[in-house]
Amino acid sequence: MNGVLGFLQTLLAFAGAFGTLVVLHELGHCVVARWCGVKVLRFSVGWGRVVWSWRSRPDGIEWALSSLPLGGYVRMLDARDQDVKHLSEDDLRHEFTRQNVWKRIAIIAAGPATNFLLAIVLLAGLYMHGVEEPSARIAEPAAATPARQAGLHRGDIIVAVGGEAVASWSEMRWQLIRAATDGEQQDVPLTVRRPGRGDYTFTLPAAALNDFDPDSDVAAAVGLALALPPPVLGRVDPAGPGGRAGLQPGDRIAAIDGVPVVDVGAFMAIVRAAPGKQLVLDVRRGAQALRLSIVPEASPAGAGGKGSVTVGKIRVELTGRPDMIVVSDGPFGALAKAVTKVWDTSVLTVRMIGRMLTGDVSWKNVTGPITIADYAGQTSRIGVASYLSFIAMVSISLGVMNLLPIPVLDGGHLLYYSLEVLTGRPVPERFGEIAQRLGVGLLVTLMALAVFNDVVRLM
Fold first, then answer.
1. Active site includes 26?
2. 219 and 257 housed in the same domain
3. Catalytic one among 26, 95, 140, 171?
4. Domain count, the chain
């Protein structure tokens, strides 16, 4: 039952996010078309057969709800799609192709601009409200990692990356991603605060970020991991290995086989790596010090009990959270931060597309509707703030993708009109038809690749 409810929540979260973004994108086209004097025939929420409609006066726009409630479309008076021979000269003044090139550019650009504007509004609202996030306090870097070699240690708090101040773990990771993708290949200075001792500057060498894989965690790649709380037990399954060994809620695991356990991550790693093997736990229970033996049960690592890798489990819950901070700004600071975030994300997206074209980044990073739906479900279960942040990120991606110079997308039309501005005459109709066919073929290929990558991830 829980699986069915989870699937329905994922489906609704995806439909709500993607459908809303497409509708607002089309609404941007619609509003600017009306401002520019182009006649709008229909604005539909959804696709397919119209199930309800209302015609407004005096402009005569048909506002419709259609049978497939995912996205929508706007239909303008356009001689390329409709027979306009029977229309009067007065009506033809409101036909799309008869408008000057700058009006056509404004109408087409309005869709992606709406997506960017929506992302700015959502992010600014989140920054003003305040978002609780883990601080940028790090765990002990593993030996031989760039972070360890640079001199960082457990408990250090990263307060700036490359000269840019950061307040949270997500901001720190974002600045690392920017540094890894800007193409300059420079060393990255990290400003680190050691509580009670002041601030220090360490340097990550450029080589540590050269082989950045966008499908991986850039922070983990250089040896940076979030500082986790010590392993303190919550609920203990009496029938599981932990319960049978005598573990109780509130117990703190101090050491395993005589080796100190510093945090939850280290504890989980040791247990998972020891299926069927005896472990000796040093336990703190209030003022008591206990020593208990436990044998983790062997369990398949795959989701749903499937998988070829076996890990150890003791069936206990762990309490505690990383150090959390509330990141918030005033109205002007939040707006500036939101605009910067939208710009940086757009630039990063374009850079990643460029690196895919040059072969520096694998095409396996192209994601499709299945992955987007999965993220939609996950963020909706975390909370409203996470879901709205997800919608903002998808809105930015939708805006960027629509601006790509591919025929049938907004960017393709903007390319035609830019050539018209430069040459003084429209692109030949025959050239446009051929380009449209090529554009459709390219989009179908990209969608097939995205779905294939999604299925591979699931498997």
1. yes
2. no
3. 26
4. 2
